[in-house]
Every structure is written in structure tokens, then in C-alpha cells.
Amino acid sequence: MSTALDALFVGRIYDSGRAMRRTTLRHTHLADQPLGIAMWRLGGERFRAAAIAWGPLGGPFELAVAGEPRNRDLYFAALAPFAADLCLRVRSAADAKVARQRGRRTELLPAGALQVVVPNRTTVGALGLLGRYLAYLSDRGGVTPDPALIEAGKHLRFYARHARVPGQALLLPLDRLVAEHWATLLSPFEQANLAALDAQIEPPAGTHAFHASAAAEALARIGPEPTEDIDRVTDALLAEFNTARGGSTDPAVVEPLARPLRDHYRRLIEPVWQLMDHAVARERRLPAAPSVQRRFEGDREAFGRHVDWMAGGGRYRTTDTPRQAAMTLRRLEDALARYDADKAVEDAACMVPYLLDGDAVRGVVASVNEHRVVARVRSVRRALMTLDTDDPAVLPAHKRLWWTATAHDHPWEVQAVQPHGLGSRITLMLDAAPTPARLPGAGDRVTLSVLHTRPDAYRLAPPLEAPWTHRPALPPPLPEPIDTGDAEPPSAAVDGTALPDPGRYT
Amino acid sequence: MTPPGTITQSKFDGAVITAAEAVEDAMRSDLLTRLGQEAAVVAAAPAGAGKSHFVSATVGQLRAEGLRVALVAPTNEQVQSLVARVKQLNPDLPVAFVHAHGRDLPAAIAALPGVTQPSAADAQTHGDKLVIATVDKLADAFLRDGLGGFDVLVIDEAFQADAARYYTAAGVAPTHLLVGDTGQLDPFSPIDDATYWRGGPEDPLQTAVGVLLRNHPATVVHRIPITWRLDPRAVPVARCFYPAHAFGAAVRPGVRELRLTRPGPGSRSLAAVDHALDEAATHGWAHVTLPGAPVLTADPVTASLIRDLVHRLFARSARANCENRDSASDLRPADVAVGVSHNDQKDLLRALLDDAGLTGVTVDTANRLQGLTFEVVVAWHPLAGSPVTDAFHLDPGRLCVLLTRHRQACVVVGRDTDRALLEGVPPATPGFLGWDPDPVLDGWDAHEGVFRLLEPHVIQA
User: Fold this and answer.
1) A460:B143 CB<8 A
2) For residue A359, which residues of chain B lie inside 8 Å, CB to CB?
3) Does the beta carbon of A323 lie under 8 angstroms from any beta carbon of chain B?
4) B168 and A463 in contact by Cβ < 8 A?
5) How far apart are CA B402 and CA B454, in angstroms?
6) How would you label A154-168 residue by residue, b for 16+ Cβ within 10 Å and e otherwise?
7) What is the pLDDT of residues A345-354, one digit of tens each?
8) How far apart, in whole angstroms, are the C-alpha atoms of residue A152 and residue A78?
9) How close is the nearest chain A Cα to the Cα of B355, in Å?
10) A58 CB-near residues (< 8 Å, 6+ apart)
11) Do A394 and B351 touch (CB under 8 A)?
12) Which residue, B138, B126, B129, B150, is CA-closest to B100?
């Protein structure tokens, strides 16, 4: 992002009192009814969801509150409905398939994919950790955990890992979605609060965006990390709950006792849920960019692979092999370059930073002529274009630029830049034989930039067996069998009632 | 860099050269005893240690033993200059340069006798005994065309090659020689969460040397204790970037000389520029500072000042003398480079220098100047005019590359508020289990050291 553009936005927003659009199109796929998930953790318990809310956005949410999430029985019992529902939704989303022709091969892709929307990136991380925790559950003490929990854990793990892909739309953190489409006065840290973002975009009448977001931030808690004031209330309710249940985990006993905690979390989640719905509805009003469908097709493909893998047992490694990491890195880099190029080529507003940074030029075509030039050995046909820009352009000779209309094709090479009126006259040569589709007409207003959407050469997968350099000289010691100690009596569950009171905050 | 023994030794520091030769001999014999085994020898070198010379000479020696060798480096520019270097030291040695589409050798190098540019498949069919390629191209040729079965894989600039690229290329030969410069830029990635794997054994962004030493901690690491490129005046600054590595300059003080004609009449407006050039010619360093101001990365004022410095250098008919010559000769545009941190700075300067008729002067970002040598370098300080510090601009590797490319003199251009950025407490940085280095803190330290050493050479523009 261009510093100059950011400075301009901040100045304008400061003057006008409300956030401004960065884009004219929506660059992310939004399903008709994505599955919303919002959650809260206990302070310091990174792997446990104290409360999790879910449901199709636009409707009411369901809420799972364990009461005491540090008690395994209570925790699993509370998560079970969420897990079962998530598994069902994933499976049914992958049920309908469509055929896709790739060369001579026909592939079956899921017709849709379950899109999950969460309030912020922290929630993506939290869901990933929750998935990591559930996906590898062992049957401690001979009690087999509900298989739906393990399956849901694997789904969450897949979603959180896929969320790394630039431009993906399977797991959408709304803070990123909104911040990508809107320029605000907020720092990256402040943008994590969806309420503050929303207040910048639609401040109450007569209130400046700055004050609106400050007020929103002070009031609204988004989660999943509790603030101290929330933790204080939770702590009191939790202590009450643990005293009242007296160590019982019987649903008939626990269910009514957990009501105050459930109400507490419902009060916290309700405004978040409305915000999520509101933010999605607002972004949906923007027309989708043409490449959104192609990117979502990539998401569907990944989703389909995951569901197929799950059908065959779905064992995932806890960490990547060097080979997987190398392949993932290249894939993410390619996706990022393509996403940036797609956005700028399709959306004039996204091209602005490139224009300001000297990585793009916009101007009126003064002339297009064909010439013969000697390329290496043979004489070949080449087109020369002269382009008149409104502003002076700084471009070194031989810089390669792609016309946005043929960004998937061959570049133009800068030959010369001369002052022309208030701007510049740039001479460019097409790096391929001229065809009508490759040439703009004289008088056309065109943009050329360093961005292209040409697929890079197909990369072959690295060898399956790691070379000696990437294998430890001494094989690491074998881990203990996962069921070590299962025959021993279970260690006492960590339970609020069994812990000494650490003292209240002062 | 100069191969020792070709000129009068009196211009050189004999003790430093003897120590370096001992290390190079030890490396070669270590490598030869490991032939045929899955083992490696690592050579860590400071800037301008004669790595390419060592690599090219070693390749010649390995070929003389009848071994089949693959020689690689991360970038196209690096491998192209390796071809030239190998041919220079071993004129009779056939070299097969395997390249990607559109990355042919420059005509002058391609025309050297014995240099061929076969396709990967042809190189394998013919059983070419010495193949030079980029790491990526070799990996691709290995997978696609089965180019492999070498006895030794030699990687130059191995601290810039990442573990992901090394993964595939490592399969072409059992025995590896990894040579590199620890002070330069580490492998990087533009993705948001490039630190995702950091600290894990699978991290694709650790260096080739890093992954090797992690899995095979017993691998021998040699440190080359010499710099051929830098002269004694430049060594103290360069040492800021190699804290655990002792090295000295091969050239004796006073051997390198940069002469400028006196500024003529009417040059008052250029007094600061002239002063800076004189300071650099005399002491090897000048740190030109503009008044502090909040500026864009591609600040036109700084760019024009750099253009003036370069232009004035030639206007004052700079002549350079060094250990390789008997008398001073004119500085050519190709002997001068401008080093920057950002592409928009590069583009702006390229246009300004082209307008000033200085097309032959190199302008490039630090990561593309790695491994190159010039007589005079003008460096756009990474922190120039910056309101805050961040990991990118504090990276010690970036500053190291900019300040260690020159043989004669280096002019650093910044603003007088830059040093104040390093006052106070360094920023908090994330920690990673299993990963010790802290580039931000190291950079903080290196930047502070460089500012201190350049203090006597500050000239206000």
C-alpha cells in the first residue's frame, strides 16, 4: 500500500468524518448465508472455548457454554452439538458435485463449500487452536470422546490453515474483509475491533468517525480474548456455578445451574452477531469482481479435497514435513501475487497505489504502429505505442508493463520517456507479435502496470523423499505410544472447585 | 578481488593472506575426504572474501580430479558472473550453462570458448561434467529431465538460498560445498505470515546452511578470515555485520587511491557535494545528511542529491589506483553503483541518472546488489527520513550489502534525524522457539555501530 495514498485517505477522512472506500468492487466471495461463528475464551486458556455461538448469518445463533470449560466432561458435552452441526454442514455442502473439464481430465468439484464468517483474525487463530486440540483427542481413561468432536476438530484445523491463502473465502475474518474494502483512521491493531471499524464507516449522525470509533471500542467487546472487566464477571459466575454443582457433571444438575453463565455470554455475543450480519450485508451490496468466482473455485477444490480425505479416515500430520512446507510457501506466494494482480487489474481504485508508486501508468494512446525489429537473430513484427500521461511519469527504460486488458498476455517494454505538456510521452514496444486483441486503439485511455495474471510455469512437486540435508542425522526418538498411561487411574480433572482461590483482582 | 600471487606482494598484508590460504586449503581437503559420502563442507565468508574466486578455483580442482560438478547460486546475475569467473580461472574447462527460458548468457560470456548453453535434457544425455545453473533451474531440471548424478554440488551465496529451494536441488549430488556470506540479506517471502514455520525443522525460509546445520550439527564450518574487496578503512564498519567473525583486509593501507580534480570556479552551489566527495576520497567514507524531514520513500530531494554526487564524481574526472594497477586510471560509469532499499527509489534514480547521461551507472536494490563489486558506491541509507524504524529497514543484511560493495569509497546519504531513531529502547520483538537470531535487535546494534563509525565523516548538505 502506498504511503502517499494512505496519507491522502487519512486527510480526507479526517475532514469528512467518515471512512472511505478503497475499492469499487468486492474482491471476496460472500455466500448467501455463510455460517457465522463467534467465540469467547477464558483468559489464559488458549485451547478452550468458554462459549461458542454459531448459526447461519442473518438468523439467530445457537450457543454452547460449558459452564466450566476446564472440566473435560462438561466441555465435551457442551461442544458436542456445535461439533455435530458443523460436521453435518460440511458434509452436506460437499454433497452436490459438478464436473469440471481440465484438458482431457474431468474432475468432480463440490458445487458449493461451507463459508464460515468470524468477527476477526484472532478468532481464526482461536478456531485453529480449538481444531488442533480436538483433532488429536485420545481416549483418556478409556473414555472415547465423541467422534464428531474429532471430526469437527479436523474441519476447524483445515479451515484455519486454509485461511492463510491470500484471497481465500472459506474462512472470512470480517475485520480483514472490511479493512480491505475501507480506508479508516484506525491502526492495524485497532482494526481488530469490528465495532470500531463499523463506527468509522457508519458513524452516528453528527459524530466524527474518530469519536464514533473511540466510543464503540470502549463499549463493544468482540472476543475471543476476554478483557479484565469481562473476566471479573465470568470469574464470579464461574465460582458460583462450581460451588453449586458440587463436582457434579450430570447434565440434569448442571444444565439449569449454567444458565447465568449462558446469559452472560449471550449478552456478550448478541451485539457481535448483529455487527457481523451488518458488515456482511454491507459488503454484499458491492458488485463482486470478476475473479471472485475463480478464486472461490480454488476454495471449493481445496474444500472438496479435504472432505474426500476425511472420508478416507482423514489423518493429518500435526506439523508439516519440509516438503509440505516448501510447497505451501510457493503456493501462498503465487496466490498472493495473483490476488494483488487480480484486484488492481479489475478495480481501478486498487490500481491507484501502483500509479503513485511508479509501478503503473495511465494515459491516452497517441499512436500505435507496427515496426519490424531484429530480435536476437531474426527480424520480427512488433508494435510500438506512444502513450501521453497527464502527470509526469518516472519509468526506467526496459521496464516491463502489462496493459490491464491483456494482463494475462505479453508485456510492453518501456523504450523512452519524454516530457510532453504537463505529463510525459512514453514509447512502449509489445513483446510479442501484434494481433488486434493485443493493441489498444489510438485515443483510448489505458492503464499499464507491472501486474500480470499470466500463470507462471507449472511447478513440479519436490521429491517425496527428503534429501539427506533435510533429514536429521540421528532419527528423533520415537514418541511414547499415544495411549501411554491409559491403564492408570485418570488424574484428577482440573476443576475450579479443586483449585485454591487465587484471590480476586484488586 | 584479486587472485594472490599475480602482483607484487608488498601491496598485500602477507599475514592475512597466509591465514586465509590455510583456511581455503583446509576446506578443499575436507571436501576431498568427504567425496562420495552424504556430507557437506560450509564456508562462511565476510563481504568480498574472494568467495567466487575460491568457488571457481575449487570447481577447477574438482574437475581436474575427474569429478562431475554442479555449481549453483540463487539468482541469474550471480550464476552468469560465475560462468565468467570459472572460465577466467580455468580457460580450457568446458562449461554447460543450463538456463530458464529467456535467461541466456550475455553475448560476451556466451562467446567464450567451451561455454555451451544446452537444454537440461541435453546436458544429462551428454553427461556434461560441469553444469552451472540457478538453484531453481537445477531443481526444475532435476525433476523434469532427471539432470543429476553429480559427484559434488557447489552452492555459492548459500546464505541467500532458502531451505525450500535447497530441498530439491540437494538431490543432484551426495557431497555438497556451501559457500556464502552470513552478513547479507536472509531469504524472505512477501506473504503475511512468513514466520509461520519459524523455529521448526521444516521452515522453508531458513537458509540452506541453516537447515543443513540443524539436521547435521557435526558439519564443519570454516570461516574465511579475509576480505579482498574492502580496504583497511572499510573493515571496521564491515565488522559491525560479522560480530563473531574475525577478518582483515588483504590490501595494505594506502594502496587504494581515489583522485579527484579540484572543484573549478563557480562550484560554490555544489560545495557540500564536493566536500562529501573529497571526504570519501580521503577517508573511504562520507555520510551526507540532509536536514530531517518527513518524506516519501522515493524522496526527490535525496534522489537529486545522489544524482549530483554521481555526476560530480565524473565531472571531477575521478581516477582510481589500486593493487591491480601500476598507475591510476579513469573511473568508468560501470565502476559506480547506487544502492537503495526500495524499487520506487531505484526507478526514480534510474530516470534521473539516465537524464544526466549516466546510463552506465548501476542503480539497484540491496538484494540485487548482493555479490557485486564496484569502485565507488553511493548508498541511500535505509532509515533516511523514516519517521519510525521497522524490521525491514533495520535489517542488518540490507545495510551490510549497501556498505560493503565498494573497493575505494562509499558515500552514505541520509538525513540528520536518522540516528535519533535509534535512541532509547529497541522495539519488542517476537520470539520463536528453536530460533535464536533476532534481526531487529541485531540490526539496531549494527545501525548504531555504523552511525558511530561514520560520525567523523558526517557532512551536512
Assistant:
1) yes
2) 343-344
3) yes
4) yes
5) 14
6) bbbbbbbbbbbbbbb
7) 999 999 999 9
8) 14
9) 10
10) A33, A277, A281
11) yes
12) B138
Asked if A396's CB is within 8 angstroms of B351's CB, the reply is yes
Residues present in chain A in total:
506
Q: How far apart are the first and last CA of chain B?
A: 33
Q: Is A348-449 a CATH 1.10.10 domain?
A: no
A473 chain-B contacts, CB cut-off 8 A: 215-218
Q: Which of B135, B165, B215, B354 is most worth mutating to test chain A (most A CB atoms within 10 A of its CB)?
A: B215
**Joined grid coordinates for residue A482:** 499415544
Distance between the two ends of chain A, CA-based, in angstroms? 44
Is B117's Cβ below 8 Å from some Cβ in A? Answer: no
- Minimal Cα distance from B106: which residue of A? A376
The per-residue b/e assignment along B273-289, b for 16 or more CB within 10 angstroms, e otherwise, is bbbbbbbbbeebbbbbb
Quick check: B205 and B162 in contact, CB under 8 A? yes
Say whether residue A205 is in contact with chain B using an 8 A CB cutoff: no
Query: Residue written as cell 518527513?
Result: B294
pLDDT in tens, A137-164: 877 666 788 899 999 999 999 999 999 9
Confirm if B168 and A462 have CB atoms less than 8 A apart.
Answer: yes
CATH 2.40.30 domain extents, chain A: 348-449
pLDDT at A475: 80
Q: pTM for this structure?
A: 0.88
Residue A485 binned pLDDT confidence (cut-offs 50, 70, 90): low
B189 interfaces chain A, CB cutoff of 8 Å: yes
A12 touches chain B (CB under 8 A): no
Cell of A273: 452477531
Task: Tell me how many degrees the CA angle B402-B403-B407 measures, rounded to the nearest 5.
Answer: 110
**How high is the ipTM of this complex?**
0.86
Min distance A324 CA to chain B CA atoms (Å)? 8
